[in-house]
Prior knowledge:
By secondary structure, the chain is α+β, with helices and mostly antiparallel strands. It has a single domain, classed as archaeoglobus fulgidus dsm 4304 fold, CATH 3.30.2170.10. It contains 4 helices and 11 strands; from the N terminus they run E-E-E-H-E-E-E-H-E-E-E-H-E-E-H. It has helices at residues 51-63, 92-99, 140-149, 158-174, and strands at 6-14, 17-25, 36-42, 74-77, 82-85, 88-90, 106-110, 121-124, 130-136, 152-153, 156-157. Strand 8 and strand 9 form a beta hairpin. It is globular. The N and C termini lie far apart (36 Å).
Amino acid sequence: MTKETILAIVTAHFQNRSYAVGTLFTDWENPSGGEYYYATFSQQDQSDQRSFVREVPVKIAILKQIPKSIKIDVMLIDRCVYERTRAGQYGVGLYLYDYLLRKIPVIGLTKESCGGHRFIHKNRFENGAVFYSSAVGVKSSWAAKKVALLPVDHDSVALLSELTDALQHYIEKENTDANQSIRR
């Protein structure tokens, strides 16, 4: 069985900028990331709070830093692939998948449900933590099984906690006045 190369990306927003950190891993059960990739994207239209406008460009900036010799098989993001909105069912993951010309599958992982879409799976981990996964480009059942392999700590997937901590440090370094009001 061949291992997939997964790019995990976490984003946050602070003072009209989007920030992201990403890492590559190949083992769902032991996703110890190697090198971290960081990106910042300034939001031109500060009134536009739609998540895909804020998040897709900064995720693409991370993707562009990955050496061309590495083939990414799956992207794992901290947002929904599908959402129930008035504008339709597109979530950040689906916009990202379209941007990638539907060549790299995207798995979204969130603590809150993205709506009643039939391709959203509720994953309950041994410690009681609950996450919702959705996917595009691969079967959602396959994605849910892979997500279930990820180790958890306290109430979060350990890899996402690790990336969130790294992102917090990056934002603080970039913004001397960064504070607890950073919103994800």
